[in-house]
Each structure stands twice: as C-alpha cells, then as structure tokens.
C-alpha cells in the first residue's frame, strides 16, 4: 500500500497544542502532497468539524481547555464516522479505558516518529479496506 496515495482526498485533522509537533507534521504531510489540517485546541477542531467534517482525527490527549478524550466525545456527536488516533505520553489505565470506550482505533505514545504516524494510518486504512471489501482507491 502506498500510504500517501491512499490519503489523497481524505481529510485528516490534527489537534495538537505543541507548535513544533503541529508544524512538523503539517510539513511532513505537505512534502508527501497530502493535506493535513492542524489546530491547537479541541474547541478549534470542533468548529472545523461542524463546517467540513473529517475522515481521520489525530489528537493529543493533553490539550488546553478540554482534553483529547472530551474533544473526541463532543466530535462524535457532530459526526461519528471518523477514525480516531490518540497521541499521548500518559498511557494510564483510565486513559486507555476511556479511549477504548470512545472507539479510538490507534494509540501512539509520545515521543513518536513519523514512522509511528504512518504505521497507524496504514493500519486504519487497511482495516477499512478489509472491513468493507474495498479496493485501494476507495475513500473512508
């Protein structure tokens, strides 16, 4: 699977308060000719979802204001069809339990590499293709 070909036309939203991570991932996706919308807070992300929707959300757990799990809970009430990836340095039992309850598909522990992001995205796309019997060019 060519991940970045598969991501063409898929709306990926990153919610991350660390400007270095946000900007690095935005540049990484742009270098691969894929769009990544990146925002700092859950509140900003909710406004975007209301207007545009998204296919994949990558969110940090620790955010200013509401945390990443509260954001996912609120986002699901707007659009429940997106895939969820949680970034966290806090892999505790309560966080993991709540994330599973909310249907988080992938966990990426901080610190992470771009390869970790790529592998999580590949797993999400492969699961979707297998679950729906879809070919590689179909979107989420």
Secondary structure: elements and pairs:
Layout lengths: L2 H4 L5 E4 L3 H13 L4 E4 L2 H11 L3 E5 L7 H11 L4 E6 L4 H9 L4 E4 L4 H19 L8
Parallel strand pairs: 1-2, 1-3, 3-4, 4-5
Helix pairs in contact: 3-4
In the sheet with the most strands, the strands line up as 2-1-3-4-5
- How far apart are the termini? 15 Å
Number of domains: 1
Helical content, roughly? 40-55%
> What is the H level of CATH, i.e. the homologous superfamily?
Response regulator
Main sheet?
5 strands, parallel
> Could you report the average pLDDT, rounded to the nearest whole number?
90
The proportion of strand residues reads 15-25%
From the alpha carbons, calculate the radius of gyration and give it in angstroms: 14 Å
Q: Can you count the helices?
A: 6
Structural class assignment: alpha/beta
CATH class: Alpha Beta
What is the CATH third-level topology name? Rossmann fold
Coarse shape:
globular
Strand runs, count: 5
